[in-house]
Automatic annotation (TrEMBL):
Cited InterPro entries: AA/rel_permease1
GO cellular component: membrane
Transmembrane intervals: 27-55, 61-83, 104-132, 152-173, 185-204, 216-235, 256-281, 301-324, 356-375, 381-398, 410-431, 437-455
Subcellular location: Membrane
Keyword check for Transcription regulation: no
Phylogenetic classification of the source organism: Bacteria, Bacillati, Bacillota, Negativicutes, Veillonellales
A Pfam family recorded for this sequence: AA_permease_2
The species this protein was found in: Megasphaera cerevisiae DSM 20462
GO molecular function list: amino acid transmembrane transporter activity
Sorted UniProt keywords: Membrane, Transmembrane, Transmembrane helix, Transport
Official protein name in the record: Amino acid permease
Membrane topology, as annotated: Multi-pass membrane protein
Keyword Cell membrane: no
Amino acid sequence: MTKNIFRTKSINEFISETKQDGGMNKVLGTFGLTMLGIGCIVGTGIFVLTGVAAANYSGPALIISFIIAALACGCAALCYSEFAAMVPVAGSAYTYGYVALGEFWAWIIGWDLILEYAFAISAVAIGWSGYFNNILMNLGITLPKALTMAPYNGGLIDLPAIIIIAIVTLINIRGVQQSSFVNNIIVIIKLAVVALFIVLGASHVNAANWEPFMPYGWSGVFSGASIIFFAYIGFDAVSTAAEEVKNPQKDLPRGIILSLIICTVLYIAVSGILTGMVPYLDFKTTAAPVAFALQNVGYHWGAAAISVGAICGLTSVLLVMSFGQSRILFVMSRDGLLPKFFGHVHPKYKTPARSSLLICVITAITAGFLPINIVAELTNIGTLCAFIIVAAAVVVLRKKAPDRPRAFKCPWVPVIPALAIIFCAILIFMLPGVTQIRFVIWLILGLGIYFGYGYKHSIISRAKQGMLTPEAAAAGAETEAGTAETVHPTDAH
């Protein structure tokens, strides 16, 4: 069994599977992918976590924390771009791991990504609920605490968080073209709001607020980077759209890299201005640091505009995160590692509707009943582990298939992948110990599911046992065992 769990699937097999049931609609180009990336990246990190990181970890050196996190993500993004152009399949890091490292590591990455996206969606929905309630209070409307806060925080259920998850799910089920259109509008609004903050705040920067610049030392800077890492993970969602891209070999790398560059510039500008406007310790008292900073210097109308922009920003993050999560479940199901039920494509909308509904139920429960700090930390550690495995996979596949055509090549291999691994490992180490323990428990649960279900039901296992015809193995469909013949898929060691 030890050898079999590292069996791989060829790139050609993955690509052939995308044609099952007619495939999904190919409607996205570079612009749409870049907007998806920005839509997912600019949100909770800039509107919520900047204050938390500045007050408790980085101080004014928050700008360095963002740069460190950007370097880690930049190295990982170059690795992602090489794979995305070479393997234009919806599973993102899961698919890349399957091709280069084998089924076991693919499962680990997929299980990590399930953790990442599920808890990210929940965390963003909780943040959305907070801004929504704040806007209502400014309008003189106060919802009962029992219906707007999780039990951990003194309420019964966070109902607004559940409702926004349901709305976003319905939009995603209707189709990627509709999701992309809605996302583009929202992204334009929130970029305008971020630009407004930069313009208004730049003239109110007081250099005295940057002293001491690094009050918590380098340890605090790296801890801050591990916390605000949440702000950058959205570029991963771009690669999950691979099967709905017109020209994936060119558009995917461009979308991943452009979205990350644009958002990094915005984060550095906002964090520098934010900590220059308000003493970093003042952010301990607010969950809306950007709006708080504008109120502090007298721009109350600007603070109101920021709140509206935050709602838009968080909505677009939910939209793209839900989109990405459903595509990962869809591909894992199509490969047989999860029940076949979730690999179904809706006959009318050409989207993985069942996967979307499952995600809706799980994330709504999580957002409705758990506090934001727990879900945010678990999101970060799952993402960091996935990035490490993808970086390693680039090096492995360069050795295993050096002549494979690569429309985009990660530069300076193995240096860039090694830097990605080192940066991500440091950030994992800087996360709270309890988060690391929870993650280990999550991995143990995942291993139980893999060895109890996934290993036996994967397409490769069924093909080797004679349960699939050659055609069915390529399409990921099950046939009668009596008419099947033994198949040995390419690279299935």
